[in-house]
Design brief:
352 residues, 11 helices, Glutathione S-transferase Yfyf (Class Pi), Chain A, domain 2, Rossmann fold
């Protein structure tokens, strides 16, 4: 999968902007505030209908305007051109593929798979379990739309059951607990399968590139295989649930811990070591997509050399950029010369 061109209208600082991309490495460089990350945001919109940055969609609209437009030309795995458009106007979003409107964002997922690596992604290692769950749920949803639909249904039931807890509605609680059990077991089954496959890819990536060091990921879950076991576990927590007005058991409590040389990365790794582990995480994500979607994802490396020494930065480029179309942003023009010394055929885009 390749992206050839993108056009932006009223996206953040850009009134009008377009640029072309080439296969291999594309470097976007310029001073802060010139819109480097905005270009990556726009590409992410074409992939998932939303930004990878936190905040409301309306914040992406150029000041003083009522909406924005993004249009991209991609080349699929069959060498055919496709045009994806995302338009937001008056708080309404419209997504098109070859000028035909999609009924749901679900139809967009997987057409342009992207892997984003930004400074904020260190939260995958440093943040709470919800961040790691969201990370893996996004990956699995992209390769399996049924997983995405199951996840949405589980969250719907979870929300409804919490309302029942808030209202102290003991009669309805059993009904929603049974619904939750059925949905949870189905979700756990799929998640366990995909986690095992991702973990195997992560181990292979790590051992092939960083064999002198040790790293692993562990899936921490209290998954049950039967409705009976689920109901028994919830029964033991019911008093706490009624007191705290919260769902205390299910896939939404799963977590994933990464280790570096036998110690949890979150608490014991340096910033550079975390970047190294994060590189392996993103490489595994890329190969996971490639295995399932039978096409190469697009890599977006935002401010790659932030908190990363040149040696680790170049290692990341050699590892990821040599296999996939890659778009890198940097504030440092010297990065261009540094990459030139180690990589051929770089497309350079300078934002004045």
């Amino acid at each position: 999968m390749l992206i050839e061109k993108i056009e932006l209208s009223n996206v953040r600082i850009f009134e009008k902007y377009s640029c072309d991309f080439k296969p291999g490495i594309n470097l976007i460089y310029g001073e802060n505030g010139r819109g480097k990350t905005t270009i990556l945001e726009a590409i992410h919109y074409l992939s998932l209908g939303k930004s990878f940055k936190p905040g409301l969609k309306k914040n992406t609209i150029r000041k003083g305007e009522k909406g924005f437009q993004i249009r991209g030309k991609i080349i699929d795995q069959y060498k055919k051109s496709k045009f994806i458009g995302v338009n937001i106007s008056d708080d309404k979003q419209k997504v098109t593929v070859d000028n035909s409107s999609l009924n749901s964002i679900v139809e967009l997922v997987g057409l342009l798979p992207v892997v984003i690596m930004s400074p904020e992604d260190v939260n995958i290692l440093d943040g709470g379990g919800s961040i790691r769950r969201s990370f893996f749920d996004r990956i699995f949803s992209i390769v399996d739309r049924r997983y995405l639909l199951q996840l949405k249904e589980y969250k719907r039931i979870l929300k409804q059951r919490r309302i029942v807890l808030l209202n102290n509605d003991s009669k309805s609680l059993n009904i929603w607990t049974e619904k939750l059990a059925e949905s949870a077991i189905s979700l756990w089954s799929k998640r366990a399968k995909y986690i095992q496959q991702y973990s195997d890819i992560f181990d292979t990536c790590w051992n092939s590139e960083f064999s002198e060091l040790l790293s692993e990921m562990r899936y921490e879950t209290k998954a049950t295989e039967t409705t009976e076991d689920f109901l028994k576990a919830v029964e033991g927590l019911q008093k706490q649930e009624m007191l705290r007005k919260s769902n205390l058991f299910g896939p939404h409590k799963d977590d994933f811990t990464f280790y570096y040389n036998g110690l949890p990365v979150k608490h014991f790794a340096s910033q550079g070591e975390k970047k190294t582990v994060l590189t392996a995480i993103k490489h595994a994500e890329s190969l996971f997509f490639q295995n399932y979607l039978k096409t190469s994802p697009l890599l977006l490396l935002d401010d790659l050399f932030a908190k990363l020494d040149n040696t680790r930065g170049l290692r990341t480029i050699r590892l990821l950029g040599s296999q996939f179309q890659t778009i890198i942003t940097s504030t440092d023009q010297n990065v261009s010369e540094l990459i030139d010394e180690h990589q051929d055929n770089i497309q350079k885009i300078h934002l004045n």
